[in-house]
Prior knowledge:
- By secondary structure, the protein is α+β, with helices and mostly antiparallel strands.
- The protein has two domains: 2-42; 62-167, Immunoglobulin-like, CATH 2.60.40.10.
- The protein is built from two helices and eight strands.
- The chain has helices at residues 2-21, 27-42, and strands spanning 62-69, 78-86, 97-104, 114-115, 117-118, 127-135, 142-152, 161-167.
- The strands form two sheets. A four-stranded antiparallel beta sheet has the order 1-2-6-5, with no helix packed on it. A four-stranded antiparallel beta sheet has the order 4-3-7-8, with no helix packed on it.
- A hairpin with an 8-residue loop joins strand 7 and strand 8.
- The model is unreliable at 44-55 (pLDDT under 50).
Amino acid sequence: MAKVKRNLILSLAKLLLSGWKKGVLPRRLALSGIGFLLSVGLGSSVSVSCCYVPSEPGPGPRVSQLLANPNPTGGADTVRVEALLFDEDWGDDEPGVAGAELFLDSLGQLGEGVSMVPKDGQFGSDTEWAYLDIDVSAYPPCTLRVFVLGWDVIGQEGQPDSLDIEITE
């Protein structure tokens, strides 16, 4: 029975990896599924967790420009971060930027960042400018790294980008 269980778990893990490699299944979902299978297969005495693994350059929109103004801040309380996202036609029927998120200090999972605002009022085009005003008044002089990640209308993450903002007095 143990051999059957082991083979079933390995087959399901291979299926999850195959789905990710073919672009049918998001990477983090495949990794989470494999983590779950391992925890079930190894029993409750083993704890398996999955952290975010930044995507490889994906089929979603890439951040092609990332700007911060003012940078350095020179005592300003607010910094506007602007990102140009470009969704190349990767063979999907519905290209278009669906949204963008900003992360402070480190790149997180989609849904954990702060939603950016489309400059034209709505997302949906192949090329979109998005912005977010960040309150930096509580930061001491430092370098603040921001990351921007976009996704397309069918939920595919793109290639993120990062920018350092110099918080100065």
